[in-house]
UniProtKB/TrEMBL annotation:
UniProt keyword annotations, A-Z: DNA-binding, Membrane, Transcription, Transcription regulation, Transmembrane, Transmembrane helix
One Pfam short name: HTH_18
Keyword DNA damage: no
Listed Gene3D superfamilies: Homeodomain-like
Protein name: Helix-turn-helix domain-containing protein AraC type
Record carries keyword Transcription regulation: yes
């Protein structure tokens, strides 16, 4: 790898790190955006450290011919990150599902397995060197080979199970969108690279891993900069009775969310462009965290997404009352300050632009995609 190549990659690493920092600062009660920002910053920081190291000591691609396969430290690094990232589809489709207890339950197996691997490295340290698949099978009786093979299989199957479980469910608060499918594609690409990287390390796999990780981080960080939840779309929640709720296996909507929703429909204070979660919580005499969790039980990723949804519905109401009114004026009356944000949110929710919606109203129709 030449110095120019490494320098360009280092510049993109810094961009990934900075984007992660921006996401952390703007996340507020959107924990998905917060955690993605942390992951992006960590990935950017890791590659910055690695590429600065290569710039200081080498100008060529490192040689892997004498690196043992089934490296425990590489598998543990993958498993730690994969265990967290694989929970994003579930967290995206079920906002508010992960409380401290559920998160502990899901991450307890990875924590135990990773701790076991670290303890083996520190307190035993015996690792049989293997440089081909044939050598793995010929040393299968060795305890460390069995441990390494077990770790390898678990580090593939468990994140895969976390990843596929919510996608197989027919009952969710939100609908999968095309960005989720792109996310799925990247995850399977990384899984393939990880298998190749663990069983047959070479220059091509090494470069592919770095490029894919950087593209993955930058792409989805960009999506998170402009969207509260880029992997799924909110579905209009319909109140159901207890019997239907149990039959559908849906997560129950918090009674507090009903109070929140009723209050804001009676008092459209959300049209104030500076309206905050704290303002809403004070009006209801509730804690910020409780109101935020209630909003998430309604299928929204956070306060900002919920308020924007209410503003869009209010825009529809105002536009229906006076279709000849200026779109920009209506937009400001609803509480939006950015034309770009307004148009993007409207198109994402209804499938058409505000201009098309107004034209349909003027023609006597208002067909919107739900």
């Amino acid at each position: 790898m030449g110095i120019i190549h490494l320098s360009i990659e280092l510049a993109f690493d810094f961009i990934a790190f900075l984007m992660g920092g921006i996401l952390i600062l703007q996340a507020k009660d959107n924990y998905l955006k917060l955690y993605w920002g942390i992951i992006a910053s960590c990935i950017g920081l890791f590659f910055i450290w690695e590429n600065i190291g290569w710039l200081m000591i080498v100008t060529d691609t490192p040689e892997y011919r004498f690196t043992s396969l089934l490296s425990i430290d590489k598998m543990l690094k993958w498993y730690a990150l994969a265990s967290v990232v694989s929970l994003f589809p579930m967290a995206s489709l079920y906002p508010g599902y992960f409380n401290h207890l559920r998160l502990l339950v899901f991450l307890l197996p990875p924590v135990i397995i990773i701790t076991t691997g670290i303890c083996y490295l520190f307190f035993n340290g015996h690792l049989t060197p293997v440089y081909s698949l044939n050598e793995i099978w010929s040393h299968i009786q060795e305890k460390d080979i069995q441990l390494r093979l077990g770790l390898f299989l678990v580090s593939i199957l468990l994140p895969l199970a976390f990843f596929i479980l919510p996608l197989a469910s027919k009952h969710a608060f939100r609908r999968i969108n095309r960005n989720m499918y792109a996310f799925i594609g990247f995850m399977f690409l990384f899984l393939s690279i990880y298998i190749a990287f663990t069983l047959n390390i070479n220059e091509f796999v090494f470069n592919l891993f770095g490029i894919a990780a950087l593209v993955f981080t930058l792409l989805f960080s960009t999506l998170y900069l402009f969207r509260e939840n880029p992997f799924s779309d909110h579905i209009q929640m319909i109140p159901i009775n207890k019997e239907e709720e149990e039959e559908e296996s849906a997560l129950p909507t918090s009674p507090l969310f009903v109070s929140v929703d009723n209050y804001l429909k009676q008092h459209p204070t959300y049209t104030d462009k500076s309206y905050t979660l704290q303002n809403l919580a004070e009006a209801l005499n509730e804690k910020d965290k409780a109101v935020s969790q209630a909003i998430k039980s309604g299928g929204f990723t956070g306060f900002r997404e919920y308020i924007n949804c209410l503003r869009l519905e209010y825009f529809k109401q105002l536009a229906s009352e006076d279709p000849n009114k200026n779109i920009k004026e209506l937009m400001y009356l609803c509480g939006f300050t950015s034309r770009t944000t307004f148009y993007r949110n409207f198109a994402d929710k209804f499938g058409i632009s505000p201009t098309q919606f107004i034209e349909n109203l003027q023609k006597g129709t208002s067909n919107l995609e739900k």
